[in-house]
Structure formats: structure tokens, C-alpha cells
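Q: Could you fold this chain for me?
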Amino acid sequence: MTVKKPAPRSFGHVETWVFDLDNTLYPHHLLWQQVDDRIRAYVAEFLKVTADEAFRVQKDYYKRYGTTMRGLMTEHGLDPDAYLDYVHKIDHSPLEPNPALGDALEKLPGRKLILTNGTVAHADAVLKRLEIDKHFEDVFDIVAAELEPKPKAVTYERFLKRHGVDPRKASMFEDLSRNLEVPHTLGMTTVLVVPSGQREVFREEWELEGRGDPHVDHVTDDLAGFLAKVRTMAATE
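A: Sure. Below is the predicted structure, expressed as C-alpha cells.
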């Protein structure tokens, strides 16, 4: 017997808009190859293994622990500060201003926050390059999460507590379906963002899945356009 997916949650009640950063506010391929390469290089040097083995470890830990860093910390006693400092030293210049996204964010009623497994420094650089930094109240990063990455429930709990967010009056925008499961359970309206360029960097099949998952209320490949429609939807609810 096929279980019918519940009707998607709406936006009329939303007071707080929560966004992931990488591959949500901009397409992954514009920066991620740099980060991916630096993660692999760090793993290879830290574990004294070949590039191929570093690649295997990197992707395995990312899938099992939420971030490669968490896996290295758990299994090898990694110093997270040194790791974070190294992997996010990238060139952000490929990013260009996104006035359409800025306009859509400005017109959204309520608070806007970033919840990322990256760092505040990286998020700040991205937001400034996109020229949308003025629209966000704060960035909750991996350090604020006490190095526990999404999709762990404790990460979302810490985020909600720090910013006084009622999840029943909030929405979450993410590029990974698994990172929306906890928010949906907590009562948030969830949106899976699947921008173009997904295959221009290496992404595993599991990263691209989840459009039909029961904890995904909405799916979009055009965030700015979707946010503009959200205003209309919210006004009629």
C-alpha cells in the first residue's frame, strides 16, 4: 500500500527564515571545488595517505559524520581550528552580486538567519560578494554549534535556543534533504534547493536525492524566484 505524502506546509505563519549557505544561496560549483581540493589536501597530509585514499576518507567521513572534519576529530583527534583555517582560505571572487536574491530577501517579512556547517568568516565573505549581507541578522556556524554539524539534532536545538526561534513559525532552506529531516520534525516548513551546476563538481548520488522525501515540503532550482512566489503565497493564506 502506498502512503500518501502529506500536503506541504505553508509560509503564512513564518516569522523566521533560516538559510543554509553553500549550494543554497549560490551554486556549489562556483566555490566548492576549491574547498573540496583543500579538504582532500589536508586529509592527505594529516593522515599521510595518497590523494586517492584521502578522497575516499573525505567522502566517507562527510557522509557518516556530517562533515569530514567531524570524522577526523572522532577517529584521529584532529585540531579543528587548524583544519577550518586551512580549508576556507579560498578565492571568493568567482561570486558576483545577486540583486534578484537581495530584492527577494529584502521583501520577506521577518528575521533572516544563516545556519551553516562552515565558518562565520567564510559566510561573511560569501554574503558580501553576493551583496546580501545586510539582509541577515546573524550567522550560526560550526563553531557556534560546538563543532557538531548538521544533520545532528543538537545542532538545530542550539541554533533555535541561541536565537530564540520558534520552529513552528520558521522555515528552513537547504541543499541536502537529510539536513531538513530534523527541522521538519521540529515543525519548520522545509525547502530543498537544487541549483544548477550540481555535476560540475563531484557530488555523490545520496547528495542529490530526497526531492520526494516526506520531510521536504517544497523543492526549487531558483531560490530568488521561489522567494518572490512565497510572498504571494503567504499573502493569500
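A (continued): Residues 32-87 form a domain with the DNA polymerase; domain 1 fold (CATH 1.10.150.450).
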